[in-house]
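Components:
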Amino acid sequence: MMTKRSVPVVVAASLTLMIAPAVRAGLEGGQGAGGVKSIEFNRDIRPILSNYCFHCHGPSAHDRKAKLRLDTMDGAYKDLGGYAAVVPGKPADSELIARITAKNPDDLMPPPKEKKTMKPEEIELLRQWIKRGGQYEGHWAFVAPTADELPKVSNAAWAKTPIDRYIMARLDAEGLTPSEQADRHTLVRRVTFDLTGLPPTPEEVEAFVKDKSPNAYEKLVDRLLASPRFGEHVGRYWLDAVRYGDTHGLHLDNYREMWPYRDWVINAFNANMPFDQFVTEQLAGDLLPNPTRDQLVASGFNRCNITTSEGGSIAEEVYVRNVVDRVDTYGTIFMGMTVGCSRCHDHKFDPFTMKDYYSLFAFFNNLDANPLDGNKKDHPPVIKVPTPEQQQQLDDTQAELSRIDEEIKQKLAAVKYTEPANPTEVTVPQPTEMVWIDDDTPAGANLQGNTPWKFITKTDGPVFSGEKASTRTAKGLSQHFFTDAKEPLTLGKGDTLFAYVYLDPKDPPKEIMLQWNDGKWEHRAYWGGNVIPWGGDKSPSRLPMGELPKTGKWVRLEVDAQKVGLNPGAKVNGWAFTQHDGTVYWDKAGIITTPAHPQKFDSLAMWQKYFRGLDKPVLPKDIDAIVKLEDDKRTPEQVKKMTEYFVENVWTETSDEFQKMHAKRDQLEKKTDGIEKGFATTLIFKERKDIKDAFMLERGEYDKKGEKVDRQTPAFLPPMNPNLPHDRLGLAKWTTDPANPLTARVTVNRFWQQCFGVGIVKTSEDFGSQGQWPSHPELLDYLAVSFVKSGWDVKALLKSIVMSATYQQASKATPSLLAKDPENRLLARGPRFRLDAEMLRDQALALSGLLVEKMGGPSVKPPQPSGLWQAVGYSSSNTAHFKADTGDDKVHRRSVYTFWKRTSPPPQMTTFDAPDRESCTVRRERTNTPLQALLLMNDPQFVEASRAFAERVMHEVGDDPVARAAHMFHLATARQPSAIELETLVATYRDHLATYTRDIEGAAKLVTVGESKSDEKLDVSQLAAWTMVANLVLNLDEVLNKG
Amino acid sequence: MDPIRDHMLAMTRRHFFKAGALGLGVPALTSLMPGAVRAANSTLTTGSAALGGLPDLPHFAPKAKRAIYLFMAGAPCQMDLLDYKPKMDEMYDKDLPESIRQGQRLTTMTSGQKRFPIAPSKFKFEQCGQSGAWVSELLPYHKKMVDDISIIRTVHTEAINHDPAITYICTGHQLPGKASLGSWLSYGLGTENANLPSFVVMTPTWTGRKDAQALYNRLWGSGFLASKYQGVSLRRSGDPVLFLSNPDGVDSTTRRRMLDSLAKLNQQTYDAVADPETQARISQYEMAFRMQSSVPELMDMSGESKATLDMYGPDVEKEGTFARSALLARRMAERGVRFVQIFHRGWDQHGNVAGDLPKQTHDIDQPAWALVQDLKQRGMLDETLVIWGGEFGRTIYSQGGLSHENYGRDHHPRCFSIWMAGGGIKGGVVHGETDDFSYNIVKDPVHIRDLNATILHQLGIDHERFTYKFQGLDQRLTGVEHAEPVHAIIKS
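Structure:
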């Protein structure tokens, strides 16, 4: 729990005063709906002060002019030397009024250079407010919501639910009455869309229309809430907010594998996970005790931000940018505030300071990862996420593995080892030098070099062994080498490579290097300068060996093979002698290696003897250690362990049998690897071990560090319970603490917005003082309080909304209602607005019967016009070329599963206002454009859906155009057409039929658009004509809208 | 919106529908929509009033009615094109003095270099025109038009990587989410031709470095503005505007038949529920139908004279080239498209300046010149602002190997060169000076904010007053820091 702390004093300014109509009209534009009957500071005055004054006289100490602040009562009333900005009750004595009405431009406020001119009605409002006492209130959204007594209303019979009481109270005050209840056809379509994002089936319509029971509607709502389609629909809004995408979003914009997080969101909504838990697992799933795989997946919330790996990027700059994105997203989603301004300065309008910003920043400042994504789909940290089928496979394989292990164990227990009477004698081999190159190169070697190999004899210069040495004089980088030796060097453990070198004292090189080829030239050792740039320095591909050897004498060079990445089993087929400048002689080169050791022994004693004498780590470490102990120093357990190892792996009597079981086990392990490789990954959050210091960043710049800050929640909000950890988990708990005034309000407002098209606070992204005043503040508080009380029950909240009489009203508008409330903020009529992009496409697929209801899994790529990715994509990006998927289960899935390339999202979505998912979006615009019309008429997927819709109708209804038209209309609208509607459709059909009877070829072309095949048994002219009618129906305003 | 008036208008139309026959066509319908009449009849709309846009715009009499932005994505090498640095010839392979670099940050592509050897431009420069501006041999056609344009050599930015930098100059912010220049113009000024989008983007082919920097839809996106203001990106092949063509087997008559019924049924819906959006939808479908002819008409070059085509050069015959895009831009300007932006890629010369830069300049030199001349010949240059430039500049020091024949250049945000022409911009001006290294600005810096303020200014917009409230802020294209139009290049 949060500790209680005094919140800004609330002075209930319940001034009821009628304002002149002109003033009222002036307010309507910006201040919600309807007339204003009283002056409320927060609703009427604060926005004016905020808009015109706070920039210089607001919360920001840095920008404050003349030491005057108008955002607090103390500031406004302060004695400024015989006068004050606001003198309660006395506008004429108030400097504020004098300045906003000043004739002299030097005195006028706001200063003319600010180019903001106060409207006369705003000035009048300020004057009236001061006259009535000039009272201040704390900003409403920063005071915890309370649910007071339900308001009294004129028609309690209509206002059955608490929501309706609040709505009706406002309607009463405005002199409006609610609309009648929508008919059942309208209602079933509306609520089905709102809870599942899809249209109802005719059977569902029928069942509801015919259900005479008093709770028929509630049963319908409950059924929809239980549908798996619910999570797919409601989760989609959340995916906008968290900026979910299938690519990294910046620069190359490569593929990012993140869909398990998307599925987690959908599942969480379907399971009706309490919203506080939903929030906690996403903000801090990784910090929960023993987090489950799902909770780790959820922590991907903070990894949904766009990332880059652009060449030349400065890691720390990108790191800060990533954290900033997380802070801004947190601010918008949970606080309903634009905190980003405070990245550079104290917020000018809200009491959110720069220090608050970086204190919040500090919570997110600890990701244990490279900020650059490496252009990889699995930018660490990630977690593997098997599908249920994969998990099953894995579990089965693991079980089989356990069985084999058990079998081995039992078998071992059954074997009794006895030392043979006449064991085979063994001698311990010693590592020996094996020369590979001396006077000549190995058989099959393909000699190459900057210039050909050159051998000299003793008469020409120094030779170490045999008759000849190779030599080279170079300016800059030069080398001779060979590959393709017929008998490669096979490496064992502990092997050493060697070569002899002689550096000319008169012309020494800057650097010498040996390189080995085991298929790749990635094994190098060098002495001296480090001017040869190949490979990665201080790695097996460029291992430093120290200074150059002494000149003028033969020196033996030795390199531990494993240190240059040549592990046991590697086969070296090539060798290079490389130098930078100078004259160098090379001679005798090869390897020091132990001949292969025997695999099988008939005697434990002999085996011990052999390995005791062998200074090479061949045996497993623990076994080797036991073997090397004196006999009497071993514990019985050690003896048992060693003997078992011997019996299982080495003893001639038994090891064959065990080997078979080992082979089976190896096979299963390989299978396990294969299964695990098939697992999807998803980005998760992981805390660094130590806490990275966070600082105020001057002007938000990553390299301008100021004061160090701790993890703290914003000072103007109730503080965090001191018992909570100061990490993201603590932040999550604070966020969902009932005393937090913002989270519940901001959340219920978004759900309201989903159903009614506009939030109670229209600016759902901004609950600050620049945001809009709520249309129904008490209702918002009521919903927030009951949401928390219900245990953050999302389904219950949505149910309470759609069960309200308000929601169930008919959406017909009248001219007078339109004039008074064009945006339907007062809700004297039901909601009506255009469906979202996803719903439009899903509806077309559903009505046509094409929709594949498969849930989850990798994102899919239904067709889109060619060239869109290519036009923008970085040439070497792995998403530079779009290739549509094929097959119903890919191209006809719900749109929530459509692949989202963030720098070029699917046009079917963005044309209808879907965001690009590059940054957090909690409210979509709803536009109405000719490009939308073109898309719905001509996009091959919509044309295909039209054809399939036509086929469905032709199959379901006999050969009567009137019946078919009626059925088609009914499917799309959930109601029967009127006579004139029916007549229009049939007439259109007949005209199209006439056209396509003449133009069979055109008909055939039309019906072959799209992925699915048309039914060849149907008459092609009829099918084409019905396709055009279906195309018409799918473009009807009524079908595009939720009415 | 005036709901009552709209309602009354709709009532009239309803009576018309009741009385009329089914096959009602465009003219009859549009005659009832005042906004659309002009549009339906408009061909060359120079001088016609705007549709949409804000009532208080323009803030003052605009010099330019529209703009064409030739965007060189990837950042051209200013010292090889327009910022002549003769003293560098003596400094070949010498280290960039620390007094010049001043420890300023570099991208990590060269910050690890041991040396910063100076790479003088290998290209010859010549003083041109009456103004005597220095222009590189890579831009022979530009040499002919220096007296038509103002060159600014001192544009600067803070961003040093492509993605943030190009997002910054196009949307006013380094991070995604803000509205692009063109969408601001659509929002503020509306369109002069309802049958075409008011903001059109083209992404032509290029011939220099193949592995070119990416573009992003956000560069012409609408950010927080409604999506109807976003740029319409013309495709290089297929339907230029997405989903413009009817499906195979559907001709214009059939589509018209379907649309007549659609309008009639939607009118029924309007009668029943009186949602003004329904009326808007009816007119949008009509506009869509008109676009099905206006866009192909726009794209059809057959009416262009040989002289005009020759002026743009041989590439104009090929679909999707910069030359073709430049000519299309002129055709759009004629038809009242408010803002055209051509993003030409491939200017990121980290290496192989000698090989790639001439190819890039060859792509754009003649067509850019032709566009300015073409507009001038048609008397449209005065009211059409043309802008040429990239997202930042490049370093005088070589990235990677340096020879007299070839070199590479890394990103450089502290100065770069652009030019502007027409739309009230003076001709023959060279504004701003950089030091001998084209590294730091010596005189008259122009931040990219100032550049955007200048563009808005020429279109009659005071950038400080052009705001949109979002997330509690008055958002501006030029952001919160001070910006000022470049008065020195503006005709009084």
